[in-house]
Amino acid sequence: MSVGDENSKLETAHETYEIEDVAFIGRTLEEYVRMFDLDLDELHDATILDCPSGACAFVAEATKRGISAVGADVMYQSDYVDLDERGEVDIEMALDGFDGVEDLFEWDFYGDVNGVRDHWTNAYETFLDDYSAGLTSGRYVPAKLPTLPFEDDKFTLTLSAHLLFLYADRLSYEFHVESLRELARVTEEEVRVYPLADFEGTPYPRLDEILDTLMEDGHGVEIESVPFEFQRGASDILVIDCA
After folding, report:
1. Where do the domains of the chain lie?
2. GO molecular-function annotation terms (predicted)?
3. Strands of 47-50's sheet, edge to edge?
4. For residue 163, which of 131, 190, 183, 193 has the smallest C-alpha distance?
5. Whether the Cβ atoms of residue 138 and residue 63 lie closer than 8 Å to each other
6. For domain 22-241, which architecture applies?
């Protein structure tokens, strides 16, 4: 390899947001309202699934507001201490990834990396405060896509953030299709998925094929804009009509 090739390789690596594994990171209720374009006043008669829920605050905050919500995540097999440690490590790992690639992101919402830290830490702490009681009551359910332990049409609305499409380099096309079908199976009315792009803002390359498959299954599908954009260009959600 020539010096020029090596420099090019280093430059390319420097311009890419990298994270080693699927991160156990949470988002606040405010982030969820924006990224899924939610009206909380319309959700009081709904039963909502957040999957994968990770260290998100949505279930805890929704419950406080009298909204029925359940979080499902493979990490809920772990106890409080393990999740506390994992959350701290993953937040720092994810924040370190912004170094040198800030231009891949839009900062209007967070302001800067410290703003991201504040939101993610707040979400993770809110989740942890609710976790033990929520696990006992059934608000938090250990589960892993593409197979969920819920009956058909269990939930009115399902929200799915920061797994599908985002980790396109690690999750197969078949996994995406099976997971979306499973989310639709357990949902009576609507599934919303965010984002539709990877960490660099590159749209999922086989999205049209997935939309065709879902329509062949009898679902309505729409791509809708939302008032949230962090990864540059990632300001749309997939809406699956399950009714």
Report:
1. 22-241
2. methyltransferase activity
3. 140-142, 68-73, 47-50, 155-161, 187-194, 236-241, 220-225
4. 193
5. no
6. 3-Layer(aba) Sandwich (3.40)
**pLDDT tens digit sequence for 103-137:** 999 999 999 999 999 999 999 999 999 999 999 99
- Give the phi and the psi of residue 70 in degrees, each rounded to 5: -130, 135
Question: What global pTM score does this model have?
Answer: 0.91
Do you know the residue count of the chain?
Answer: 243
DSSP assignment of 167-184 = TTTTS-HHHHHHHHHHHH
Q: What CA–CA distance (Å, rounded) separates 241 from 187?
A: 9
Helix (H, G, I), strand (E, B) or coil at 209: helix
Q: Which two tokens mark 220?
A: 């309505």
Give the amino acid at 106. E
> How does DSSP classify residue 21?
S
